[in-house]
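Why Polyadenylate-binding protein? Reviewers of the renewal asked for a concrete example.
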Amino acid sequence: MQQFQKEIPTQPQITPQPNQQQQKTIIYIENLDQGISEDYLYRKFKEVGEIASLKITKDKSTQKSKGQAFITFIHPDSAEEARKKFNNQIFIRNSIRVKPYFNFHGADKKANIFISNLPEDADDLELEQEFSRFGTVLSVDVHRDQTGKQLNYGYVQFERKEDAENLIKRIQNHPLTHKGKLLKLEQFKAQSERKVESTSIYLRAFAAPLPQHLSAQDSAMRSFEYGWSLVIKDYLTRVQGDQVRDCFVKIDSVTRQPWAMITFDTFDQAKVNLDLCESQRKHPCFNSGARVALDLIKKNGPPANSDGSLQFTIQQIEPFFEEMSKDPFDTFKGESDNFFFNMVYSKHLNPDERLIIIQNIKEDVTKEQISEFLGQFGKVIRLTIRKTKNPRFQVQQCFVHYQTLEDSKRARSELYDDANEKIVNKRKEIFKDGRAVANILLSKTMRKEFKEIKKQSQNIFANPGGRQLLQPQIPNYQMMPPPMPFPHPHPQRNPQRGQRYPFPPSQRPVQRPPVNMIKPTEPIRNVEKYQPNFLQEFMDYQTVQSRMEDFLKIPTDSQRQVLGNLLFQKVFDVVKDKESTKKLVGMLIDPSQFEIGDILNMFDDVNELQTYIDDGLQLIREEQKGN
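Here is what the prediction returned.
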């Protein structure tokens, strides 16, 4: 090993900003095994050429390998040979990935293209050869997840923006395929650019399903997809006068129904067409026929493959369209009961307000019952019932997607209409305590952000408007005095005559019934205040866990009281002050801030509970200063 260490160049650092010629001599390696050292890499890669420098990147704090390395060769040919020879080869246990070094920050962003719908076995080198037909390619990067699994999208960086722009224009008439998959290409956009108003709309299931025997034939599927794209473009441009940049249509292999992605020149055009779908529950561009679609194909000609060959001929597809025109359920008539539409926004920024999550559903309620109940508010496109993932907290909930925004708004409004006796009775049948909970479903990213915001600015510790801190109904145990070592005389309890009531009548103390005093010489008995049955039934958290199904059946207020009782000792062990503990526990079981599931998680997540305690104590101190 010392021999190889001596051979490694003493200056392994690569040039911070190498020029284009220098970049060709550098390779970037990822997914290295933790046991691989620099001398191991040097011994392997020296086989393809002389090495100028080599560096494995390490974590600054732990000094452990990050699984990445940079190697600079003397000659560019050696770097290219290394990529061909070692890419996807197994080193120790991991299959490594060898890529050309590329300084993305110094490249022209307008020459970068985003690729999606890649095949599962897409290879960087093969894609580079494919795209090199359209210009000089600097880099191809297929993205992977944290486990190393290859995803279906990536980026290709051209040297010149003109090459990227010409390729985008070319695929509008000549789609690009790779290993049988139709690639989707679009120009790279920075995050700030992607936040602008969308110009695309998504239309799904806008026509009747194709017959089974036609959907099994590839040429029929492709010709119907192409025919639909021409029908939609023709109506939008000829009848409505819209400027359509792109219209992509696919037929779902499962439902056999078409869906389309239409991109307009402006946001206003996209919004007008979306509003048309909202008001009519369909779009007039779908009202056509198979013969019209075939005529448009004859007029525009069949589409071509990436190599210039035709995907099909008119003679091949004429029988399909003739058969479809005689079918009473001609798909080109655009009739559908489950038509769905949406503006193509980022889900992170714009949640779909038609998608609602319904919670607090009884365990024995069926999908048919909830579907019938929610269907009275509007057209339901999709409804899914599932249980929460938390095995300790198995709660049934429902995801319902309404067709229009008006349907969703009506559901979220009339669901809580207490004046409607029919709805009130149905709520009692379906929801626990007759209390329905309906919210717009946020994306995973947005839910995470909302949880942080809830903790930091809108949570129980913000105390908006000077709201008084709640105190839980926690059973108090009477504190008994210690036994007296010997009897002693008590001071006179009754005042002398004339001094019985020194206060004005309005301030006189209320007379209370006599209390049986414990004589000092008698042994002191533990007197416990009466507890509700639920507090006695769930006296520890282990019982709650083991009997979670029974626990969730008791009233919600009693659930909070039980959990507050169990939290009391955990919080007191940290705070060491009874009054502060009461206030903190009151915050933690406040129904306006935490769901039951959130409170249950506090017993498992010690760090989260400690955060709440720290923030609560800070609020209490600020309140005391204000007083």
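The longest strand covers residues 65-73. This is the kind of structural detail the renewal will allow us to pursue systematically.
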